[in-house]
Amino acid sequence: MATERSEPNLIQSFIPIIFLIVALSINVGLFGDAALDGSNQIILILSATVATGVALKIGFKWKEIESGILKSINSAMASILILLFIGSLAGTWLLSGVVPAMIYYGLQILNPSIFLFASCIVCSVVSLATGSSWTTAATVGIALMGIGKALGISEGLIAGSILSGAYFGDKMSPLSDTTNLAPAMAGTDLFTHIRYMTITTIPSISITLIIFLFIGFNLDSSGSINATADILQAIDDKFYISPWLFIVPAVVVILIVKKIPALPAILIGTILASIFAMIFQKDMVMDVASEQVTAYGFLLDRLSSAFPIFTGLFLGTVQSLFGDVNITTSNELVNELLSSGGMKGMLGTIWLIISAMIFGGVMEGSGMLKTIASSIIRLVNSTGALIASTAGTCVFFNITASDQYLAIVVPGRMYSDIYQRKGLAPENLSRTLEDSGTVTSVLVPWNTCGAYHSQVLSVSTFTFAPYCFFNIISPLMTILIGTIGYKVKKLTKKEPEVA
Questions:
Q1: pTM for the full model?
Q2: How many Cβ atoms are within 10 Å of 63's Cβ, its own excluded?
Q3: What distance lies between CA 11 and its chain's CA centroid?
Q4: Do 89 and 230 fall into the same domain?
Q5: Does residue 305 lie in a domain region?
Q6: Cα(first)–Cα(last) distance of the chain, in Å?
Q7: Which of 56, 58, 99, 123 is the one with CA 20 to 30 A from 325?
Q8: What is the average pLDDT across 276-305?
């Protein structure tokens, strides 16, 4: 006899969550920063297994659970493809001299005392222009990481300043997908949403910049001048450095501003960088190729003898697209900065994203996330509590569903009627969704955003999360503004139209 399916209750819904939290805590305690190398992925899959057991117990069929998993993974496919392409972009931008040029000129312009402040500003501007925190991190973010490390600044602080600026721009740009998604879910228009966000976002970024200025002026920059000179010399000895190399990132930014989709824009940037590598860094490309001839054996050796220039340029460039490239110079720090894993280097992060989406798919498809969220809604009895619960729900979905889009879409659907019944304008909801759903996604290691930025910037999420001041302050600011009732817009009744 078929088992009758029932909706999961609150206790059943929390079982996989509790398992996940406890298991991840133990795992991170044992593995430390190496937890993202594979053990966290296993914990997410085990948590999904626990969730599946609960779902089967209450009457769900495996086909229904599997459908939820596939739907969840499919929602992350765009992110996975972008990750792969970003891997190739990073490799070719390294080999072509684009990233080394950014580091070279940046070291001569930026002072350690204002570096964090300036990084946040630069990333804010780029992200506003492109509408993408991901593109910002993968372009100027990588260069700023190199500059900051060369200046002797902690990598967690550098990444925190980059991501604070990147997410400010992403949040406020009319080109951003989440900035368009939030008002669509809440039922308001784009520019009303952006204007209303300034009430919480401007104070949040202002506090963030003040914090970075304070930290910067208290940094110990002694010895950075000599270290900087050594780094500049090492880069200059190895690469041909020219302002012409900045054509490549300029083209990518222009394409994205012109609303060319991210994947074609990144692909064009990758192809252009490959061409620049063969033109400007021919010797470097040939050095990389010579390593591949040794690695792959007799056939390539014969080919390289017959067509040395073509084979060398082809091998070196393709290696930068898919695999490891490690530039060796006279400076150990430069050697650390100038390395890339290409597409292959992104596979661990993709593994993490897929594992997280498996867990999120089971939780969403079985209705467990809906049960937990509905129980939170029932506790709401004031405007401040409603905004706080919306913010908390967004953070909760970032942690459990592992995707910032779900952290906007699901709470947006859940709360829109409640805001309307309480007489609150929809921009209150759309602002809270962005203040909490968009910006906190990067703080979760297994969220698509947290995993992406950790991989691109080569910094553990646990290392940079405490310094993402904007991302931490934003949800707190939206709760504070809602609690004190400052400019909480009410619904206005439409006047009857005059015939």
A1: 0.75
A2: 8
A3: 32
A4: yes
A5: no
A6: 64
A7: 123
A8: 73
